[in-house]
Design brief:
single chain; alpha+beta; 4-stranded antiparallel β-sheet; 14 helices; 70% helix; 7% strand
């Protein structure tokens, strides 16, 4: 630490040898800077404050019915877009600043000057400040007024333009989706017309029909098997019994074939009351009845055998009842066989149609899915268009955004700049720092040996000793005069600085030549 302090003191001593150079540089910089600052033209700043009220009573009432735009965000965006070139050119035309512009480069310079001198600041409370600096206070007021007008007009116009653009886009999309919806409806209609009978819901569900027919088929097969078992049992009983005849001379008994025909006829009458002519049981009974009638005709045409019963004799009644029951079972078996065959044919037919119906069902689902998607988007676009129209009506018929001029632009009476006192103070410190820098730089160019240690370090030679300076009175007096002159020069610099500050505080400064 001691060595560092000694080294710093050495630099100070070295720089002190060039103190007059430092004073001269400081005087030159300060005087030149103060003259330049004094000649700087005054700038007048006109300001205007406007409060943008985005609160509206209709906003909560119209929630869900009309689109609620982000008015605050849009206003902040417009405040940033005010620095765009078209807006700045419009400001130049509104304030007649473009009259002195003769070419594109001049317009470019005017736009750059306007952009650098404009101030638009906004706070969280939607209070915006618009300001502009110009050497002419009247021009500053005109520019601020123009900026305020453009800010209000573009903010309101942007909202209406957005609503109009949105409605045009929605109308275009609605027409496009309306055409697509019509095409989809015609495609579904044509598909249904082409595949009529194979569509879902026509004739019931395919799997339900197959399940029902399979169940009916199993029931019919079980009933058929039961009928066959009963028939076999009746045949066994008939084989065990022998037909016996009794003589009933007083009445003629009908033969067994006639009794079977009569039984089937009664059965046919009962079925005709329940079913139609195309029912399987009706068809089966008719077939059995036709066979018996044909058999009767054949027996009547054939010669009678000698073993035929005597006239007036009748068969055993129990035997005849079993013969009748056998005929009924034969008719029932024929009916059940027809029913089983019919169910099997229907099941085979449905299985053949299965692939076609599944393919048709898949294609119909695809068509319906596309149709429902287009239809949902179409109705949603209609809903959005109505919202856009209602929002536009709200924008046009109500004041969703209210501009309140808090402070209108005024012609400034006092200049806002330049800050001459602050700039002059900065020039003073800059001159002093520059003088010290010059002195240090010169001392580094020609460094002296201020201590024996430094001499030993640089030369590498042993230092035997040092001789102190014994100043005579004449030299001391001369050094004292030099110090007073140096102090007087610095004091004079600060006195001149005080005078400059006093003049600038009173508003006195040199005429502008800049």
């Amino acid at each position: 630490m001691h060595n560092l302090i000694e080294e710093l003191l050495g630099y100070v001593q070295s720089a002190a040898r060039y103190r007059w150079a430092a004073v001269i540089v400081a005087w030159m910089i300060c005087v030149g800077g103060w003259i330049y600052i004094s000649q700087m033209p005054d700038h007048y700043q006109a300001n205007a404050r406007v409060h943008v009220d985005t609160r509206s009573v209709l906003r909560p009432l119209m929630a869900g019915l009309a689109i609620q735009p982000d008015v605050s965000g849009r206003i902040r965006l417009m405040s940033k877009l005010m620095f765009s070139r078209p807006n700045l050119e419009k400001v130049a035309r509104m304030t007649d600043l473009d009259l002195g512009v003769k070419n594109d480069s001049g317009m470019e310079g005017l736009v750059s000057r306007l952009q650098s001198s404009m101030i638009i600041a906004g706070g969280e409370s939607d209070l915006f400040t618009i300001g502009y600096q110009d050497p002419d206070p009247k021009v500053a007021k005109k520019v601020v007024q123009a900026l305020l007008t453009i800010f209000v007009e573009q903010t309101l116009g942007e909202s209406r333009e957005d609503s109009t653009t949105a409605q045009k886009f929605l109308d275009q999309q609605i027409k496009e989706y309306e055409t697509r919806l019509q095409v989809a409806e015609k495609a579904v209609e044509e598909f249904k017309r082409t595949n009529y009978g194979l569509l879902p819901g026509q004739g019931g569900n395919l799997y339900e029909q197959l399940g029902g027919l399979n169940g009916n088929l199993e029931e019919a097969k079980m009933a058929l098997q039961e009928a066959i078992n009963r028939r076999d049992e009746i045949k066994r009983q008939l084989e065990e019994d022998e037909p016996s005849y009794f003589d009933y001379s007083s009445q003629a008994a009908a033969g067994p074939l006639d009794m079977r025909i009569q039984t089937l006829q009664s059965r046919l009458d009962e079925l005709s009351l329940k079913y139609t002519k195309g029912h399987p049981e009706v068809i089966a009974v008719k077939a059995s009845l036709a066979e018996l009638l044909q058999q009767k005709q054949q027996e009547a045409a054939a010669p009678k055998e000698e073993t035929s019963p005597p006239p007036g004799a009748a068969a055993n009644p129990v035997f005849q009842q079993r013969k009748l029951a056998l005929g009924e079972q034969e008719a029932n078996i024929a009916s059940l066989n027809s029913r089983v065959k019919l169910y099997e044919e229907k099941i085979e037919s449905l299985k053949k149609q299965m692939d076609d119906r599944l393919k048709v069902e898949t294609e119909l689902q695809n068509l319906n899915r596309d149709y429902e998607t287009v239809r949902a988007n179409y109705y949603q676009l209609l809903h959005r268009r109505e919202q856009a129209r209602m929002s536009e009506n709200v924008e046009q018929n109500t004041d969703s955004v209210k501009f309140r001029i808090v402070d209108p632009p005024q012609v400034p009476t006092k200049p806002a700049g330049p800050k001459r006192i602050l700039l002059s103070t900065g020039v003073l410190f800059g001159g002093i720092v520059a003088g010290i820098g010059v002195a240090v730089f010169l001392s580094l160019l020609r460094p002296p040996f201020t201590t024996t240690q430094k001499l030993r370090e640089i030369t590498g030679l042993p230092v035997l000793g040092s001789v102190s300076m014994n100043w005579i009175p004449e030299i001391k007096e001369q050094n004292w005069r030099k110090f007073l002159s140096f102090a007087a020069s610095l004091a004079t610099l600060f006195l001149v600085f005080a005078g400059v500050i006093a003049l600038e505080a009173r508003g006195y400064h040199l005429p502008s030549f800049i």
